[in-house]
Design a protein that fits this description.
The protein has 211 residues and is of the alpha/beta class. It folds into two domains: 2-151, Spore Coat Polysaccharide Biosynthesis Protein SpsA, Chain A; 172-209, no CATH class. It contains six helices and nine strands, in the order ββαββαβββααββαα. The strands form two sheets. A seven-stranded mixed beta sheet has the order 2-1-3-7-5-8-6. It has a two-stranded antiparallel sheet with strand order 4-9. α1 (33-43) packs across α3 (108-117) and α3 packs across α4. The longest helix has 22 residues, at 188-209. The model is unreliable at 155-164 (pLDDT under 50).
Amino acid sequence: MIKYFVRTTGKRKLDSSYSQIEYELLIDTKGNCGKAFLKQLEYVNDFDAVLLEDDCILCNNFKQRIEEVISKHPTDIINFFNRPLIWRRESYLRGFCYNQCTYFPKGMGHKIVETFATLNILTHSAERILRESLNKLNLKYYGYYPFLVQHLDDGSLMNHDLSYKRRSPYFIEYLEELGISYEEAKSKENKEKLMSLMEEKFKDIDKNKNQ
């Protein structure tokens, strides 16, 4: 059985799309992202676990879709949101980045924590902990595309503000709305269509926030 967890500081209201799943909140009350993440990995170690951050939109039929993917790669770490503006085919990857929605098979959390402890690196972000630990373990993670979550990109509460955009045109709902396959989405013309739709969606989101 797959369990769902949401990493949060408790300061952000979750998008209504999270109502599709039963989840447990993992609250970082001290604002120390790295240390909190290590504790969270230990906490979920006994489960096949999906860790979500609190700043996402989950796609329609999220639970069914994500569990179907996991059933094909049950022993791999799977990243469901990666470099947001880059089109690429699903594959095994190195250089972990982004942690909006990641699956960890049972027993993997402790292995990562144990490995990271040997590196003598001051904790910084969840992404760096995963990147350095997986490199040390010589493990690849599986990158799944198109994305099953969209990043709201409202500004980070998790200690990793970035200057570039962290929303993706390759969100599965955009593809389905425009009738574009993921393979077709790699063309410049279709990416522009998806970017335009994304901008319209976020205009509506921002408008609703301000009401």
